[in-house]
Write a structure and sequence with these properties.
Layout: H1 2-6, E1 10-15, E2 21-26, E3 50-54, H2 58-70, E4 74-78, H3 81-88, E5 95-99, E6 101-102, E7 105-106, H4 107-117, E8 122-127, H5 132-141, E9 145-148, H6 153-160, H7 177-199, H8 203-219
Parallel strand pairs: 3-4, 3-5, 5-8, 8-9
Antiparallel strand pairs: 1-2, 6-7
């Protein structure tokens, strides 16, 4: 009864004196908050279960995604910074492969925003330009690793698992057959866009399209 009164309630009893007694306790208790998921960090060096690949180049996205799926990962893809942030909102990603040059964002500047949503995820940056300046920017932004394209697939896997790997040749992987078809399908349109950019003396546009084509050609070797 003392405990019930301390909790702003009461204790009552009913009995017929023959068959037994019935006790009733009434208490005032606060409503418990909704349970929250506990984020458990992956052991160091363990493979990521779910990876997001962010790159505006379709063939690179598909190459990385196909490889990671062959290693047992669940893989999501994004072609822009906005898409990457939408995927990160789920909070279920273990790792992100992040191109630093996206059509709507600087990948290095995007990294802290991804880190805020995915505090335990491993962030690996990739770039066609990976000089000392870019590497220092990547380090300051919180990227765990940073590699120049074309990234050897075993090197990428080692970076995602936080396992240092010996330098590997960029070639030597098996190109998924469907990527050859994607390349052939994309090629006429990009050739036409490249020729149009050259004809109108659009140097930034020419460089952008030439870079895209070069990256795609490297994927299919």
């Amino acid at each position: 009864a003392v405990l019930c009164r301390a909790m702003h309630g009461c204790l009552t009893v009913e009995s017929d004196g023959l068959t037994g007694s019935s006790f009733r306790a009434e208490l005032v208790v606060p409503v418990a908050p909704e349970p929250t998921a506990v984020s458990v960090p992956r052991p160091a060096g363990s493979p990521p279960a779910c990876v997001l690949v962010v790159d505006d180049n379709l063939l690179l996205r598909e190459l990385f995604a196909s490889y990671l799926r062959s290693r047992g990962c669940t893989c999501q893809t994004a072609a822009s910074g906005a898409e990457a942030m939408a995927h990160a909102q789920t909070g279920t990603l273990d790792a992100v492969v992040l191109d630093v040059s996206l059509p709507d964002a600087d990948g290095i500047e995007l990294a802290p925003r991804l880190r805020a949503l995915l505090p335990r995820a491993r962030l690996v940056g990739v770039s066609a330009h990976a000089g000392d300046r870019e590497r220092e920017r990547a380090r300051q932004a919180g990227l765990h690793d940073f590699h120049a394209k074309p990234v050897p697939l075993e090197t990428l896997w080692g970076a995602l698992c936080a396992r240092p790997t010996a330098p590997a040749a960029s070639a030597g992987y098996t190109v998924p057959p469907h990527l050859h078809a994607v390349f052939r399908r994309e090629l006429p349109g990009f050739r036409a866009e490249l020729a149009a950019a050259v004809a109108r003396h659009d140097l930034p546009g020419t460089a952008r399209r030439a870079h895209y084509l070069r990256s795609s050609a490297l994927v299919v070797q």
